[in-house]
């Protein structure tokens, strides 16, 4: 199979330079990594309907509705991850010749390229919110979808690359980040794409840099240094010890993006609306069943909301109404937030703080229903729950590059975090008119479940910054009243 190599631009996907020599690699111009080169065996996977589908899935889901610059898609991210995976493994193999094993480079590059094939509409909204609510009996994540779509890609496209059964199994294991599936293959490669050991991998390298770029934010984390000062020791990727603080910057950047962007209050409000719309549409469109059928899943992407929006199917009326509210910015409203103290994390459970318990504290005239309230538990961390991922990183020094060690927090800086996870409880109202009543009910419930004798007073109260004043009117309602007054 022969291809005419070209230069592509990931921003506008237009071909702007052709080469006559068919042996040249294809070059893709990327705003993050510059000119990236891919051999024919990689391009064959890119030029399939399965991979091209990622052009229609937003990398940051509903974030685009709040941050207009966040318009990038899973397509360019996946190409960027493949480029970094190939570059990292190639450098390791060139500097440590004992690592060279036939097909390892190809397999890890293809795993990186295909690791997000299984994402559904609006990325993590689908596997973290929609599927768990519609089908709580299955534990489905997009990684499983990626494995399914990778197999279907191989079955339905003419791929001119010699991948044996064990290679396919290996690629799927790399996507899952599970070395136990292929314990006979190179262990260090499982640190490249989906690193379950310490969560440092090229997937994060790309999305942190790419997301910051499109969001118009600055990242102080330098992934290129980390890649340059890495080597394989004891079957795992280790780093030069002076890069330790750079690694902390990686996880701090990730935390900051979650705090300021991914879990932004309006982003989450729209996410809940989109989730409600897809759940309402599921009996008609069968969205949740597609996770078991690759042919149907191939047709599912962000354009599903257009399908709902312009459908004349009566059963989609409720979904259309919600989508119209998103279009006209009549959004669900953020009501309140409580940052849970460490001593109450195991106490303020979902059984104690939920919509049913909140409306139980309403007054006679509030008229609240359970469906009026959304309780959202936000968990932010350094990618390994409440653990410090740097504790699981191996380092080397210039005196003995083949001997590794750990670094404690006190050996790096006393200003790095002491705690690595926070949980907050957020409350949203589907009906903006009920914000004040819902907030009062939530705060009454909190007082019941926060023991004053064990938790400092400043930690058991919600922020005054979120307190809704008496007689509060939403901006939309104010505009309506102002318009009516001017007419009179």
UniProtKB/TrEMBL annotation:
<keyword id="KW-0378">Hydrolase</keyword>
<dbReference type="Pfam" id="PF01966">
    <property type="entry name" value="HD"/>
</dbReference>
<dbReference type="InterPro" id="IPR045509">
    <property type="entry name" value="HD_assoc_2"/>
</dbReference>
<dbReference type="GO" id="GO:0008832">
    <property type="term" value="F:dGTPase activity"/>
</dbReference>
<dbReference type="InterPro" id="IPR050135">
    <property type="entry name" value="dGTPase-like"/>
</dbReference>
<protein>
    <submittedName>
        <fullName>HD phosphohydrolase domain-containing protein</fullName>
    </submittedName>
</protein>
<dbReference type="GO" id="GO:0005634">
    <property type="term" value="C:nucleus"/>
</dbReference>
<dbReference type="GO" id="GO:0006203">
    <property type="term" value="P:dGTP catabolic process"/>
</dbReference>
<dbReference type="InterPro" id="IPR006674">
    <property type="entry name" value="HD_domain"/>
</dbReference>
<dbReference type="InterPro" id="IPR003607">
    <property type="entry name" value="HD/PDEase_dom"/>
</dbReference>
<feature type="domain" description="HD/PDEase">
    <location>
        <begin position="70"/>
        <end position="217"/>
    </location>
</feature>
<feature type="region of interest" description="Disordered">
    <location>
        <begin position="456"/>
        <end position="488"/>
    </location>
</feature>
<dbReference type="Pfam" id="PF19276">
    <property type="entry name" value="HD_assoc_2"/>
</dbReference>
<feature type="compositionally biased region" description="Polar residues">
    <location>
        <begin position="456"/>
        <end position="465"/>
    </location>
</feature>
